[in-house]
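Lab notebook, bench 4. Still working through the backlog of constructs that have no structural model yet. Next entry is a single chain of 221 residues. Request: give me the C-alpha cells for it.
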Amino acid sequence: MEPIAEGLHLLRGTPRHAVNVYVADGHVVDAGTRWAARRILRQVADLELAGHLVTHAHADHQGASAALARTRGIPVLAGHRDADAIESGQLRDRAPVNPVTRLQLRTWAGGATPVSRRLREGDRVGSFTVLETPGHSPGLISLWRESDRTLLAADVLFGQHPLTGRPGLHEPPAMFTLDPALNRTQIRRLSELRPAVVCFGHGPPSRDPDALARLAASLPS
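Model written out:
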C-alpha cells in the first residue's frame, strides 16, 4: 500500500491509479469492480478493519463490496441517498443509461449488501468528516479532514484523463454523470477548501490546491 497521509493509504492496482481503493482510519474506501475482490482482500489481510465505506453506487466502486464485507465481517457505510441502491444491488438509476454504463453494470457490478450506517453531511468516519457532494451520482459523498487538509473526493473529479490516463484534473465525463451541472457546483465547493492533498476514485493524488482552483474557475456556470 502507498501511504498518502496520516492513517490514509492507497491500495495497489493494475493499471496503477485506474480504479482506486483506499484504507482510511481502518475503513476500506470503495471496492473497485467485482473482479477486484481478490487483490483488495490480499492487501488488507493483516489489517484490523473497522468497516467498508462506499462513496457512491457505481459499478466501479461497489463491485467487490459484498465480497469484502462478507469475507471480513465488517459493516458497510454509504451516503444515505445511495444506500438503497447498494443494499438492493440495483444501480441502473445512479448514472446515465448508455451502452457503456449498461456494459459496466453487466460486467463490473457486485451483488447486494446491507448498509449498516447511512451517512449524512457532518457525520464522522474516523478522523474524517462526511461531505454530501451529489451530482456524479445522487448520493456521492466525499471525506474531508481539516487538520491536515486531506480530501477524498471520490468521483467529484478525476485525477487523470479518463481516456488517455494522463495525470491532470478533469470533471467526470457526462456519459457517467447524472447531473453534470450539480457536480460542477461540488467541484467549486471542494476547491474552496484549499485541500493540501486530494485523492480521487481515478487518478493519482494531487498536492496542488491551485490546480483544483484553476479547474473550478474554468468550468462553465
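Notes after review: Residues 180-191 form the longest helix (12 residues). DSSP finds seven helices and 14 strands in the chain. Flag for follow-up if needed.
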